[in-house]
Structure formats: C-alpha cells, structure tokens
Design goal:
Helix content is about 65%, strand content about 0%. It is elongated and about 85 Å long. By secondary structure, it is mainly α.
Length: about 100
C-alpha cells in the first residue's frame, strides 16, 4: 500500500522548504558506476556518498590551509638559514638595542 496523495504533497512541501536540489549530469553508464561505488563503500545512496565526499574534501582543504599557515613557524623561509646564523642575528640585534640605551 502506497502513501496517500495528501502525504505525498506534504512530503514534497517539506522537501521544498528544507532542502536544495542539485541536478547532476554524468556520461552514460557513469550513474551505475557511481551507485555501485557508493554501495561498496558503505554509503548506501549516491546522495549520502556525495555529501560524505564533500565533507572529506573540505576537511582536506582545511588541513592544507593549516599546513600552509604553519609552514616555517616564525621564519617563513623555514630552515634555509642555519640555526647558528639565526642565533647570531638575534644576539647582534639584542646588543644593538642595549647599546642604544647606554
């Protein structure tokens, strides 16, 4: 036994209010491959597979952005300048600042 016409209209009204729809066009035969892939990877439906794939992609993008922000720490040129040279530069700059106050 199917759902009543009133229930069907109510479902459509709710879906129109709660969700956006995206029409996706793929090459012939690709639809079946996507459906098979989604079932094999535990998503169950193409919709949930695409949503999960979007989330994974966003997470990877955030990780890439975080790595780019933190690359190099204080010195953006990373370790191109040997540590001893950096220590010497810091020492000289501190001597210069102390000499200004003498």
């Amino acid at each position: 036994m199917g759902i009543s016409e009133a229930r069907h209209r109510a479902n459509e009204k709710y879906n129109a209010k709660a969700y956006d729809e995206i029409k996706l066009r793929v090459a012939k035969g690709e639809k079946e491959r996507i459906q098979t892939w989604a079932r094999q990877h535990g998503s169950g439906s193409v919709n949930s597979y695409i949503i999960e794939a979007k989330s994974v992609q966003q997470q990877r993008q955030r990780q890439r952005q975080t790595r780019q922000r933190h690359r190099g720490g204080i010195f953006p040129f990373r370790s191109r300048i040997p540590t001893m040279i950096l220590i010497r530069l810091i020492y000289l700059s501190s001597e210069a600042s102390f000499s200004l106050w003498k």
